[in-house]
What we know:
This protein is mainly α. It contains seven helices and two strands, in the order ααααββααα. α1 crosses α2.
Amino acid sequence: xxxxxxxxxxxxxxxxxxxxxxxxxxxxxxxxxxxxxxxxxxxxxxxxxxxxxxxxxxxxxxxxxxxxxxxxxxxxxxxxxxxxxxxxxxxxxxxxxxxxxxxxxxxxxxxxxxxxxxxxxxxxxxxxxxxxxxxxxxxxxxxxxxxxxxxxxxxxxx
Length: 158
């Protein structure tokens, strides 16, 4: 934490360092969670997207993840299906389409306790904050996620 008499520039520099540390630790945490569940981090991110955004065709998953080169998304889906994390079924309305769905019960069984433990620790910390601080933190993380999403799109276009 910067000293109370830090200049605005020093505080912003400190915040930049904290954000870099947070992002690096978040990536490493996700990798450790994936490995504990028998996967790699890319595969677990695909499962996470299926859980948060719903079932998708392989093409839609390729768009969501940016995994478009030479069958990459098919290899991910194959690994996840073999590990029991997803199902692949024909679309009832259009038998040519395949829909990939996360098997939530498998995810919760294998990595749910880890996220539950972290969630409980976060809840304990958030209980120490004021409502205003929680609202600000929510805005900060939402904006950080939006900036990251925009930058991912920019990188994929170049």
